[in-house]
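Fold in tokens:
===
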Amino acid sequence: MTDVESPSYVPGHGLLAGRTAVVTAAAGAGIGGATARRLLEEGARVLVSDAHVRRLKEYEAELAGEFGTGAVCAVPCDVTDETQVRALLDAAVREHGRLDVVVNNAGLGGTAELADMTDDQWTRVLDVTLNGTFRCTRAALRRMRETGGGVIVNNASVVGWRAQAGQAHYAAAKAGVMALTRCAAVEAAAYGVRVNAVAPSLALHPHLVKVTTPELLTELTAREAYGRHAEPWEVANVIVFLASGYSSYMTGEVVSVSSRHP
């Protein structure tokens, strides 16, 4: 294992100029927030969404201050609610006349041993992480097949490949996201839509620190080839690549943003 410092931040290159993107669970310092910022840096107009309305509005104001009020807007959305999902994607078309990119980042974790896990714990994680991705993907495909193109990028996890104690519900959900991505890609190819996913390992941000023990964070970090966690923007860079024309022949892929691919 090599201990390597985080690299310098990479500036935007206009890869998504003129496109409209939607990012779920994008209020804050995690992968969703980093992705929204990277998409803006690449020239996209971005709808940021989250179930946490206050944090969402604060982040919208922060991004609007940097990129302009016309570049970003916030639409609250709970991905477990079909009506809200439809309203989110309708807002993209209403605001900008088109929908080019959807990043399904919303997910819910938790730790519970399977023998002690309640139905509610299992169902809640699956409903946000897998069913929410399904609802958003379905709604996006319905609109994109009418316009003849688009890109969907789902956020999976290396846990969908590799076992981790206390994560049966989250691992099952993320493995489902991977399978959903592959099946959706096969269907969507007929109308010019690409569907891919990223599978991060440990992208550290303040919320994750709050809900994870220091011991587990140390253990997970030690498993990484670089001996450090990923920065959220490093995962966002891969999402931007999958959303851009540089990945025009890629669909149905789950890209590991980690050394922990099986």
User: Anything to note?
Assistant: The CA atoms of residues 16 and 44 lie 5 Å apart. The longest strand covers residues 193-200. The mean pLDDT is 92.
